[in-house]
């Protein structure tokens, strides 16, 4: 289904990059809660483990280069078990769409449109997402390529302009909280490496499969370097207390920029980076949700599903989160496990079973 | 009341946008899935506008993962020496 869609491996890399920094970039300094000034070390270790997940997805994708995870889970696990796993993946993609929609709505409601009801923000933002999904993956990937240099430039500007404010006493003493690093590593896994499993839905659309694997790793690597840098900068400039207690620490960090009393208050560049990246991230999740439901039900096209699923996503975002405090409790205790189930547990099982089936096939070939 | 009218108008607009092309192409299955999802969404929207209590899916997810989460955090914190 939909085999005529093709995107290049460079576009794939850009999408992975946006996916990695989107969502996480504005919250990531709050990880400093447990390991204090050593969080950046823990995050780099966590990113290393995150790259191992990417290797796992590459391995799983290379067994079935022309199929999405929905199609081959049915092939590996049989019809009914496969359909169940596929349906769970659909609920996961759908959940993540609403989850990031909620994050965006909260941010805009707190900083930009404070008097507007949050539902209005959801509806406006979701109309653009539906538009992105309906025009298809190819134009959408090209759009991401246009934004890529701009976002990189803004990130560099941000990092260079904030660097005069660095105070190295903020990360000393180094390795004081080494016993808290496991907690940091655990949290760093889901922001955002485990979510990268979504790209198993886009694998069959990328030309030149060998280079796709490399660009998957490269995109994740660039994103993780920026995220680690932002944790480090936030700890160095704001200090541990403010980094861990502010909800949008990176945004506040950008407010601190002051070059000779002329260049000040350019925090909107962080808002811009975050909004663009989050738009691409949410759209990829929504695309995956639509495509997975269409493939589970063997539909000819996913486009008829976009509007009804859009309405349901907005409802999910409204109903599931009653207030931001309950959302934070959920985030702290449950999110990582939820992502671990879909980002590690199911792919690993699929990989092991497909490997066993493959060896069985090879053995039976030798016998005959 | 106005909210319900608005929801029904939006639903009708979406249906008018989507249904004729599906009908022309004779995609009956797609049309069925589309209608079920749209009706489900409209029903839930009206329920929200009437302030009916809708079960929270995050609570189900929390219910599934809670024992595992508690065990895991006990382990992580014991390693951390607390």
From TrEMBL, chain A:
Segments crossing the lipid bilayer: 12-28, 40-60, 80-101, 107-134, 146-166, 192-209, 216-241, 268-293, 305-325, 337-356
A Gene Ontology cellular-component term: membrane
Coiled-coil annotated spans: none
Topology of this chain in the membrane: Multi-pass membrane protein
Keywords noted in UniProt: Germination, Membrane, Transmembrane, Transmembrane helix, Transport
InterPro entries, sorted: Spore_GerAB
Chief localisation class: membrane
Compartments reported by the entry: Membrane
Key word Nucleotide-binding present: no
A biological process from GO: spore germination
Record carries keyword Transport: yes
Protein family per UniProt: Belongs to the amino acid-polyamine-organocation (APC) superfamily. Spore germination protein (SGP) (TC 2.A.3.9) family.
Alphabetical list of PANTHER family matching this protein: SPORE GERMINATION PROTEIN A2
Protein name: Uncharacterized protein
From TrEMBL, chain B:
Protein name: Uncharacterized protein
Entry superkingdom: Bacteria
Membrane spanning stretches: 31-50
Annotated source species: Paenibacillus antarcticus
UniProtKB keywords: Membrane, Transmembrane, Transmembrane helix
């Amino acid at each position: 289904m939909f085999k005529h869609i093709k995107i290049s491996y460079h576009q794939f890399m850009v999408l992975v990059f946006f996916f990695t920094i989107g969502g996480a970039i504005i919250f990531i300094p709050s990880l400093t809660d447990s390991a204090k000034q050593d969080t950046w070390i823990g995050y780099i270790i966590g990113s290393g483990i995150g790259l191992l997940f990417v290797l796992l997805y590459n391995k799983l994708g290379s067994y079935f280069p022309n199929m999405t995870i929905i199609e081959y889970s049915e092939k590996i696990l049989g019809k009914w078990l496969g359909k169940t796993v596929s349906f769970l993946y659909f609920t996961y993609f759908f959940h993540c769409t609403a989850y990031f929609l909620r994050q965006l709505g909260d941010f805009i409601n707190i900083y930009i449109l404070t008097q507007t009801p949050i539902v209005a923000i959801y509806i406006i933002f979701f109309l653009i997402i539906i538009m992105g999904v309906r025009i298809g993956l190819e134009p959408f990937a090209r759009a991401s390529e246009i934004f890529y240099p701009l976002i990189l430039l803004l990130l560099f500007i941000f990092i260079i302009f904030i660097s005069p404010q660095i105070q190295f006493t903020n990360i000393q003493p180094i390795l004081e909280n080494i016993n808290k690093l496991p907690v940091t590593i655990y949290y760093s896994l889901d922001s955002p490496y485990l979510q990268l499993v979504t790209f198993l839905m886009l694998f069959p659309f990328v030309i030149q499969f060998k280079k796709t694997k490399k660009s998957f790793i490269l995109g994740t690597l660039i994103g993780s370097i920026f995220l680690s840098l932002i944790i480090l900068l936030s700890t160095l400039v704001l200090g541990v207390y403010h980094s861990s207690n502010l909800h949008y620490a990176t945004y506040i960090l950008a407010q601190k920029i002051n070059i000779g009393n002329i260049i000040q208050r350019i925090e909107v560049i962080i808002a811009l980076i975050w909004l663009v990246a989050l738009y691409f991230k949410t759209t990829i999740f929504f695309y995956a949700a639509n495509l997975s439901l269409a493939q589970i039900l063997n539909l000819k096209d996913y486009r008829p599903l976009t509007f009804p699923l859009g309405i349901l996503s907005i409802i999910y975002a409204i109903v599931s989160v009653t207030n931001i405090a309950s959302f934070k409790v959920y985030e702290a205790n449950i999110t990582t496990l939820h992502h671990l189930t879909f980002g590690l547990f199911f792919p690993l099982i699929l990989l092991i079973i497909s490997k066993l089936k493959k060896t069985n096939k090879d053995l039976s070939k030798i016998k005959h | 009341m106005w909210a319900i009218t608005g929801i029904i108008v939006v639903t009708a607009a979406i249906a008018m946008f989507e249904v004729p092309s599906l009908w022309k192409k004779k995609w009956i299955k797609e049309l069925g899935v589309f209608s079920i999802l749209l009706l489900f969404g409209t029903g839930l929207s009206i329920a929200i506008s009437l302030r009916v209590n809708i079960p929270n899916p995050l609570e189900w997810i929390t219910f599934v993962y809670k024992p595992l989460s508690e065990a895991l955090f006990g382990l992580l914190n014991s390693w951390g020496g607390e």
